[in-house]
Specification:
Length: 138
């Protein structure tokens, strides 16, 4: 049975952890609906921690008020990558990997994540990386 550790960060900066297994999240629909079903409503961000196949822990952001607002308003986003964290996949080649531009999407499923959608008519994209990046709207 997969157990997920869920960190709920409130608007005032405080946070709280709860746990849920896979079946509870699926029954609720997704992580955000599960958190709201517990009577928790005034939050800024939800992060879900789970274990990968090698036993390490990783974090996924499943809700963030800023990203949700940008996603709903279909804003074009620019991510500035820190030195040493440049995107060398070719997409950021004009800026030597320092900047990426994209739209924010969201995956489906019981632990949804944010996606980097490169063009407005794209069907999908890669997972949004937040490590060593700053974001702004264009």
């Amino acid at each position: 049975m997969n157990t997920y550790k869920i960190k709920i960060i409130f608007n005032n900066g405080n946070y709280r952890y709860i746990q849920a297994n896979r079946s509870k999240l699926i029954k609720s629909g997704n992580v955000e609906k599960y958190v709201r079903s517990k009577g928790i409503a005034d939050f800024q961000r939800i992060e879900v921690f789970s274990k990968n196949s090698s036993g390490g822990t990783f974090k996924e952001i499943t809700f963030d008020q800023t990203f949700e607002s940008w996603r709903r308003l279909n804003k074009r986003i620019e991510a500035i990558n820190a030195p040493g964290w440049e995107d060398l996949t070719g997409y950021g080649s004009i800026t030597d990997g320092r900047k990426n531009r994209f739209y924010i999407g969201k995956s489906t499923g019981f632990v949804p994540i944010y996606l980097e959608i490169l063009k407005s008519n794209s069907y999908g994209g890669a997972a949004l990386s937040t490590k060593n990046r700053t974001f702004r709207t264009l």
